[in-house]
Every structure is written in C-alpha cells, then in structure tokens.
Amino acid sequence: MTKEAILAKVNAGEMLPLMEEFYTIQGEGFYKGTAAYFIRIGGCDVGCHWCDVKESWNAETHPPTAVATIVENAAKYSDTIVITGGEPLTWDMTFITSELKKRGLKTHIETSGAYELTGEWDWICLSPKKMKLPTAKVYEKANELKCIVYNKNDFEFAEAQAEKVGKDCILYLQPEWSKRDKMIPEIVEYVMKNPKWKVSLQTHKYLNIP
C-alpha cells in the first residue's frame, strides 16, 4: 500500500497509529477493578510534563494498523474496550467504534477532550488539561470527570472544570503518581470537605499490572 493510500485510510479512521493493545484490569475511575481490553493510540500534542506515556506523543513512531485487525484482536478478550492514548480524539473514532459496536462490545474512551468528540461511546472519561481545554461537546457528554492533582492549584482548576460538565457526571480527583505521597492527604481532606468529589487512585500501579 502506498504512503498516500495509508494516509487516506488514517484520515478516514480505517487505520490508526497503534502504540499497544493489552488485556488487563481497569485501574482508575468508575470502572476500576473491571477486566478490560485497552487500545492505546499514538499521537498527542497536549504536552503534560508529568505524562507517564510520553512515548505515545509522536504518532509517526507507531505503525498505522488496520482497524479491522485491532477489532479482531479486542473481540478475543473482553466485552469492554477502552481506547486511550496519547490523545485518541486526535483521530476520527467513528469507524473503530462502529466496528466494535457491530461485535456487541462496550466502548469506553479516556480523553483530555482537546479535540472534537467523534465515535459512539458507552462511557467517556474526561481528564482535562490546562494546556489545551476540552471542547464543549465533550463536557456535555462526559460520564466521569477525572482531574489530576499535581499541586494545590489543581483543586481550583478541578472546580472550574466541574462547573462545565453535566449534573450526572461523576467527579474524581486523582493524585499524579510521582506526587502521590504528598497529595493523597490533601485530596482526602478536600474530598471530605467537598463530598461531591471522589478519590481515584491508579490502582493498577499498586497491583503492579499494566
């Protein structure tokens, strides 16, 4: 296949820059503890300095892979599929979610919301970042809001983000992993004073699984 043909398929969402795919336990948010198949898509320009998957940022280092192949692999393992990144909404998610739905699979996404929402989703985890704020539609559709707490200033940012999501959106505060020892006590105190929030932890790291 020529480079032009591959590019056309990527632009149409029929191929995606696949970084990795794996079957594991969801470690964060509402579905923590649930078995799920993760599809990590390369490409992200949001630029979080504390990102723990910076190798996902450059989409060119991850081979364009046919969605048909990705879906076939996913269907072997779980009925819950989590698409993450990188920033998956960099790409058109319409085709892959349509194909997953044809298999009767549940589609979840973890996104900063920095790009327009595409695709058909059963669950949207919105994790907004200060550097590139979410679009209005993602705020409206989010099922859970997960705000990462790196320092005390992030509580103010989290409150501003909470004002933009729907009334049924579940609100989570999650310590940035490298700051967890310092920030967990701060988060616990904050949630106890502001019980609309819940605590989220990266439990998969405590369990030493992907």
UniProtKB/TrEMBL annotation:
Sequence ranges assigned to domain Radical SAM core in this UniProt record: 31-210
What is the uppermost EC class here? lyase
How this chain assembles, per its entry, is: Homodimer.
Alphabetized InterPro entries for the sequence: 7-CO-7-deazaguanine_synth-like, Aldolase_TIM, rSAM, rSAM_sf
Species name = Galbibacter orientalis DSM 19592
The organism that produces this protein has a lineage beginning with: Bacteria, Pseudomonadati, Bacteroidota, Flavobacteriia, Flavobacteriales
Name the UniProt key words of this record, in alphabetical order.
4Fe-4S, Iron, Iron-sulfur, Lyase, Magnesium, Metal-binding, Queuosine biosynthesis, S-adenosyl-L-methionine
* Known pathway: Purine metabolism; 7-cyano-7-deazaguanine biosynthesis
PROSITE patterns xrefs: RADICAL_SAM
State the protein's name.
7-carboxy-7-deazaguanine synthase
Q: Does the keyword 4Fe-4S apply?
A: yes
Q: Which residues bind [4Fe-4S] cluster?
A: 44, 48, 51
Q: Which family does this protein fall into?
A: Belongs to the radical SAM superfamily. 7-carboxy-7-deazaguanine synthase family.
